[in-house]
Design goal:
7 helices; 38% helix; 7 strands; 213 residues; alpha/beta
Amino acid sequence: MNKPYIIGIAGGSGSGKTFFLHCFLNHFEKGEVCLVSQDDYYLPVGEMTSEENKVYNFDLPSTIDDEGFLSDIKKLVDGEIIYKKEYTFNKSDAQPKLLEIKSAPIIIVEGLFILHFSEIATLLDMKIFIDTEDDVALQRRINRDFIERGYSKEDVLYKWVNHVIPAYKEFLLPYKSECDKIITNNTHVAEDILKISEEISLELREDILPKKL
């Protein structure tokens, strides 16, 4: 198999990366594309440093096992299968799944810091930036962390002001101008993202996939 084509998808918390990815992946057949997510490379909480109020800051590059992340991306590039335990965040009673990720002609790497980690960024053939207004992203973050991860609204707001926004400005926003595609995702209308994801997937299917298969 020829070297896979690697797409990096970056965006701040609440930007809608997950929804975009879901739409994007639906345009491909099984075996054409695989996904590796930064979220599954968080260090165990016990290895992080908490603040004085015992709150852990997950919005720092130091919370990510970037060496393991890079190593697994390279394994996928070499055609290997990787196995990775799913990260369960605040769900202490959750049983993490063992993820089996098989290499494919198109590899998608997604996460907040993928452009900041220089060795990972240099592997990317296409960089996509998901851009969202702060108030829209905050509401999505509240909905996600309250419903899916069990955090209170007060906790979410504290982290938004003290962790999320500073990290976005320092570790993601400076790389926006380097990206090949910038997608604005302020709407709650699914058709907008569906259209954009279809356009990019068609471009890849016509120009990239025939060369990789």
